[in-house]
Write a structure and sequence with these properties.
Layout lengths: L7 E8 L4 E10 L2 E11 L6 H19 L3 E5 L7 H20 L4 E4 L1 H9 L6 H12 L8 H20 L8 H7 L7
Parallel strand pairs: 1-4, 4-5
Antiparallel strand pairs: 1-2, 2-3
């Protein structure tokens, strides 16, 4: 039996980090989501920052080669007070993105607040709330050892929700195009 691949895609979500990188993979079939895998890559035992970046690259490539996702959804670094932490997170994100680019995959980036809002309805939700909502949504019982795994899964689910919520809706290049198509809705 042949399946119609045009209505399905696999999304790899990554929560980059230099101590722990979380990842999650979902299969989207039309508007239904199915959990494929989630987990973490522990890097905190490594002292050498370039070695951590190498492991992030290698693990991301390995996930891509194993699951053949259609795209990478990644969490954008948040703005913190410690510039060194921001720099390291940015490097981790960049290396994961480079791994996807090495496999010609499209990349989508989401702010942490957008991801939380998408999953829980609250942009200020805690990691535990996000994990609980994902367990309910994706129908899995086991609680991951690290919440970074559900953070990675949340990025993938967030990306899926973006497409589902915008499918069938027309997009406009600007106000003039919208007004032209919606004459009755525009008040003069």
């Amino acid at each position: 039996m042949l399946t119609d691949k045009s209505n399905e895609r696999i999304i790899l979500g990554i929560d980059p980090g230099t101590a722990i990188m979380g990842y999650g993979l979902v299969k989207e079939v039309k508007s239904k989501l199915e959990l494929i895998s989630l987990g973490v890559v522990k890097l905190d035992h490594l002292d050498d920052h370039p070695l951590k970046l190498q492991r992030i690259f290698e693990k991301t490539v390995a996930l891509i080669d194993q699951y053949n996702p259609d795209c990478l959804a990644i969490e954008a670094p948040f703005y913190g007070k410690n510039i060194q932490v921001m720099l390291k997170l940015g490097r981790a994100q960049g290396v994961a993105m480079a791994a996807a680019l090495s496999r010609n995959m499209p990349i989508f980036e989401y702010a942490p607040r957008k991801i939380k809002q998408s999953i829980t309805g609250n942009g200020n939700a805690g990691k535990e709330q996000v994990a609980a909502m994902l367990q309910n949504l994706m129908k899995f019982n086991e609680t991951p050892e690290f919440l970074d795994a559900t953070d990675g899964l949340a990025v993938a689910v967030c990306h899926s929700f973006q497409r589902i919520s915008t499918s069938g809706k027309k997009s406009y290049s600007g106000w003039e195009a919208f007004a032209k198509d919606n004459v009755k809705r525009v008040v003069k």
